[in-house]
Amino acid sequence: xxxxxxxxxxxxxxxxxxxxxxxxxxxxxxxxxxxxxxxxxxxxxxxxxxxxxxxxxxxxxxxxxxxxxxxxxxxxxxxxxxxxxxxxxxxxxxxxxxxxxxxxxxxxxxxxxxxxxxxxxxxxxxxxxxxxxxxxxxxxxxxxxxxxxxxxxxxxxxxxxxxxxxxxxxxxxxxxxxxxxxxxxxxxxxxxxxxxxxxxxxxxxxxxxxxxxxxxxxxxxxxxxxxxxxxxxxxxxxxxxxxxxxxxxxxxxxxxxxxxxxxxxxxxxxxxxxxxxxxxxxxxxxxxxxxxxxxxxxxxxxxxxxxxxxxxxxxxxxxxxxxxxxxxxxxxxxxxxxxxxxxxxxxxxxxxxxxxxxxxxxxxxxxxxxxxxxxxxxxxxxxxxxxxxxxxxxxxxxxxxxxxxxxxxxxxxxxxxxxxxxxxxxxxxxxxxxxxxxxxxxxxxxxxxxxxxxxxxxxxxxxxxxxxxxxxxxxxxxxxxxxxxxxxxxxxxxxxxxxxxxxxxxxxxxxxxxxxxxxxxxxxxxxxxxxxxxxxxxxxxxxxxxxxxxxxxxxxxxxxxxxxxxxxxxxxxxxxxxxxxxxxxxxxxxxxxxxxxxxxxxxxxxxxxxxxxxxxxxxxxxxxxxxxxxxxx
Length: 633
What we know:
633 residues
């Protein structure tokens, strides 16, 4: 049965809102299918504005993978700004997809990709606008299955009441399995509950309602256990081992409205074994899996032909760590020199930077600034977080960059890290001053710039710091004020240093949502009912709204954030298997407290984090007889 487009009713409202082009659809490489020609209908959502959501690689990949199937279609939906939301409510128009402007409520599945927990209130807005009950327990056969994915889905407990299912890890293969199950369930007339049971039985789809949580008298979790037969006690993450078999997106979407990334992006590898203790992405995406140089070349060629972009971003958590990054950069720069297609990398590790590589990336385009991420201000703190970079290494690196024509350097740090002191943070000022001095000495010019960018540290699940206490906003803000004063104390150097930072309050809320349990769902709902939207945007975020909601529903914000967890404590996500051994994470947390550095296991003996055993990966034997983590190609 066909589903009518809402565009005829939506179009008259668009002249009354900001950036109406973001709701129109019809982008280059967008896909539409006849509703009646397929069995399974997916609505894919990135719970933020179009300009942030459209470039998201995860959504674009799943959009193509699903639409290549003959039996399924996928359309996209994004969060609507408050101005359009108000008009949609006034005129009775539901949440819609931008591809065909079909109502989200009509789809079989609503897949929501969460890169950050601060998108949770936007999920509730979309559900309510769509006419889908907020609570999964209130939904019936007429409502879509609401499924969460993305990095935040590794602890979906704070939104357990609002979602029907969650998937951990890579989505390319599991969306196909889910599509098969839903298609057969529809064909056989299975109920909603039966369909969810079939999904749970795969062992790779988490259905929160099939698990009960028991709390002790002190408020801590005592147990999380299945409440019916046939449900696994632990749910596993999904890992695509051969990236060359999944060269997506093949034809990336080209945005109609301005977006945060105006480029074509190719993911050159997944995973990271550097072992930075604060980095959830590096931990949960293990093992390292590289795309081949030939596969990267084919993706760049087809993507540029399909889009017309003039810049290619080579993406990963640490792109310069690709074992063939030098040949990749040279071959692409040679291939596209005449077309003037430029290449870009995300922030570069100091110890992975070399000037030949940087020159290749700047050869076909303008020479923009370089970004490095020391993360911690002092060498002591960098040992704690396992970021093995010395200040001398950084100064040598930036000196080389300045000598070869660069004039701007951006340094990224975090504030509020475990064991951090005021002195650790103040060393950031010394480092920034030394960077300016090095630049002036190398170039003989005073026109040297350094930007210090600082984010608040948030402890994340499935990392060694998941047990750590989070610094209070007042602590973070006080240290940042001292840092600004220290940078400006030397007027000659300080005037060439810019400082960008995030206040501590949003980080504390992110910490609540990151490590919260199901009881935090009541806070999210109260914030949303009080008007919370777009909490990742500073102009929309209200710390007072969050603290008021915590007090209203009886949730102790400090208990969830600034409290250090104990070794034997049951964590809300312990039944969700990221492949990492919990004891290994605890041991690494203890190593952090003693400032012990751990080597990168791509090149040194295996430290038994558990991933290779879990993945069934063939493990190489090193010259000492100990095991080495392989690079999967």
